[in-house]
Design a protein that fits this description.
alpha/beta; 7-stranded parallel sheet; about 240 residues; about 45% helix
Length: about 240
């Protein structure tokens, strides 16, 4: 258990599975959670369960991100907003889908990091930013031309931001999970011809749960990770190390 008493953590994508699990873990350990997401009903349920404060802003629009974050004393940020796009090969890729995936996954990470880090610097207590990336940034996955590219961009933002923000005692790391088998994932990853061969190559041989990913995120936000920055941490059952 980590002590987050007196600390405020902003989570984008908090109405999703990983974001919601992270919010619940942080709230249980004393954090004041600022939860941003697209599903109003899920956010309301999260707030009722955890006491989180809900925020509504478009993570791809700089004016909305700035207005939502400006003046807040932030100690942590989790960039968890994301969209999978489509399963496409390079020769079939829909550029509009590609642009949307890049905007939601990569552009939002830059905008939230930009404005949140300014508030952390103003606040003067340092802090930690964790980007929820993917194994798709570490290895080539069939059909993941847009999604994998967006997460690779996120990983580079992690490394550069860690380099730039370290002087302010702000740490920046990524977690790179394998698939969490939600209904949104199952339409592709749940196909027998996809799931079977993939899991056979994974040493642990199972999909991740939401808590499997939230736990490392919370650790990287905590003081126990005080000397860790610029890391892209696979949370993938050993798949990328095979």
């Amino acid at each position: 258990m980590h002590d987050f008493g007196g600390r405020t953590v902003l989570i984008t994508g908090a109405s999703g599975g990983i974001g919601g699990a992270t919010a619940r873990m942080l709230a249980a350990q004393g954090a004041q959670v600022l939860a941003c997401g697209r599903d109003e009903n899920a956010l309301a349920a999260l707030a009722a369960q955890t006491g989180a404060t809900t925020l509504r802003f478009d993570v791809t629009k700089e004016d909305e991100v700035r207005d939502a974050i400006e003046g807040r004393d932030l100690d942590g940020v989790v960039n968890c907003a994301g969209w999978g796009g489509a399963i496409e090969t390079p020769q079939e890729a829909d550029v509009e889908v590609f642009d949307k995936v890049m905007a939601i996954n990569a552009r939002s990470t830059l905008l939230v990091t930009k404005h949140a880090s300014r508030q952390m610097i103003r606040h003067g207590r340092g802090g930690s930013i964790v980007n929820v990336s993917s194994q798709a940034s570490l290895v080539g996955l069939t059909g993941h031309i847009a999604y994998g590219s967006s997460k690779a961009a996120m990983d580079n933002m992690t490394r550069v931001s860690a380099l730039e923000l370290g002087r302010y005692n702000i740490r920046v790391n990524s977690v790179n999970p394998t698939v969490v088998m939600t209904p949104m994932s199952a339409w592709y990853w749940g196909r027998p011809e996809v799931e079977g061969p993939f899991l056979e190559q994974m040493p642990l041989g199972r999909w991740a749960t939401e808590d499997d990913v939230a736990g490392p995120v919370v650790f990287l936000l905590s003081d126990q990770a005080a000397m860790i920055t610029g890391v892209c941490l696979p949370v993938d059952g050993g798949y990328t190390n095979r």
